[in-house]
Amino acid sequence: MGADWHLNDVSVVTDVPESKTLLKQVNLRIEAGKITLLVGRNGAGKSTLLETLAGLREARSGEIKLGDEPLWIKKGRRRKLNASVSLRFGLSMQHSESQWFLSTVRGELLYTMKPYKVSAEESERRIERAMASAGLDAELLTRDPWTLSGGQQRRLSLACLLACEPEWLLLDEPTAGLDAVGIRSLCAVLEAHRAAGRGAVVVTHDLDALLPLADAVAEVAHGNVREAAPAAAAHAHAAAAPEALRALAALREAAALPPQEPAAPARSGGAPWPSPSEAAAAAAEQLARRIGGRALQSAAAAPAPQAASSAAAAATAADAPKGRAPRADTFDPRALVAAYLLLAASLLAQQSLAALALAACVTALLLIPFRQLIYRWAGVIRAYAYFIVIIGVISGIQFRPLAFLWSSSEPTVLRLCQLLVVMMLGMPMLQLVTPLRLQRSIQQTFGWMSRLRIPIHSFALLVTLIFRFIPLLAGEWERFAKLAHARGKAVTPLRSVPIKMLYSVIIPYIRSIVRLAEQMADALEARGFGLVKKKPTYGFRLRFAKPDYGLLAAALAASAIQLIIAASL
């Protein structure tokens, strides 16, 4: 018998600036030798929980253990993934059709088994058995994984896990893209896995196929996870209950409705569930008690639509994070660019480190509302600061005689520090300017140049694509870093790829980027981009508002102060 999973007060939070809590103090035990389903609505946190179990997300707090072994080991100030634990489970992510590294199916299977150091003879035996268990023909071993159908790629993802013979299977929506035969094969694989004394954790919406197979079900809702309960009750009632009873049970489970009385009086029409107005009024009353606000006091007495909308509005207001940074549509891109140019020019005009320090303090005051948008770049800022120190030391060294001259180092340090402050000044713009609003600002500002046969609309589209594609590059690299940890069992820091895996990752990464570019080109063509119109029609037009004028006024005042500092010091 294998080991159980133990999650003790595990919380997972997204990176800044959002700082959104994805999992809230999860306490969960997943028993070995059983199939546990994770169910819940879209966005409830099911995939996040599975990735946290697999070490692809690091918990902000709490502890995860497989048996007596922790998933994460402290190494100095940082935590490192426990290699011995990572070899005991296999993960199949939701979009398994986008995980291929090599040019053949056989190569993918061998790559997945590489961390387990399996002999060549044993590898062939495992490949043959895994392909048969997943329902794939042996003749597909020489095919390129990308040429397989979606269902075949799903089966190949499962075969890669089976070839490793892990103690635990962690599956995210394994039935997606499978036909009836494929689903039956998957169920047979899970039953055989359980019969061998091993466990599985399955995220699924397909309860019709997997619920009869499950030993336990854990519900995930709004980042909260309930202890896995036996699936017997769900077996008995899930398929037979009418939709209204399911909705009523969900409301009661979420404490939005009071529990049913033992001898509840029959309602009008003989229905065993409340009418929409009764359900809305009860939900509003319970939410008012939970939130403690007064906005819902009148909602319970209102008609059903108003009651439901009032409850939803109050719940949204209660859950809304406080102190959030400005949104991407707060400022006109033209105001942001103008403010940035004013401040950057005055910063570059400083002629000494003392003057630059004072000017940077003035700039820092302006950046206080945007500080959350800069936090995510803390690693880059720290690395650049180290770079300044190193270059400053090197530029000040004199060999004959050996000495350090600050007079030689100061100009270099000053220029590098100016670039650092200007770079920090521009960091919030990456989140405050969306590609579409940037494109529209260029078109509205310089659109008159098209009369001079200057392709300003094409230039605006090019700039938009560049800004749109840079996040895609970073996002794809993060995805491949996840794959390196999930399939290659890397224990390096998350979002990084070990040097030894770069060779097998870089070519698939480039192929993925090219594929994204092709998809983007098709999307642009479908939307009519490139079709020249004499009088184009815009979906919206940008206009300066009070925040824009306030930003420009603050930038002008700060620039004037910085120029005064530059002239006086």
List keywords for this structure.
15 strands; 569 residues; 12% strand; globular; alpha/beta
Outline of the structure:
This protein is α/β, with parallel strands linked by helices and 569 residues long. It has helices spanning 46-53, 83-86, 105-113, 120-133, 150-164, 180-195, 207-210, 232-237, 243-253, 276-291, 304-319, 333-348, 353-367, 371-375, 378-396, 406-426, 429-432, 435-446, 456-486, 502-526, 546-568; strands at residues 5-13, 21-30, 35-39, 61-66, 69-70, 72-75, 78-81, 89-92, 168-172, 199-203, 216-221, 224-225, 229-230, 397-399, 402-404. The termini are far apart.
Overview of the molecule:
The protein is an alpha/beta fold and 569 residues long. The chain is built from 21 helices and 15 strands. Strands 3, 8, 9, 10, 11, 12 and 13 form a 7-stranded mixed beta sheet that branches. It has a 4-stranded antiparallel beta sheet with strand order 2-1-4-5, with helices on one face. Strands 6-7 form a two-stranded antiparallel ribbon. The longest helix has 31 residues, at 456-486. The protein is globular, with a radius of gyration of 29 Å.
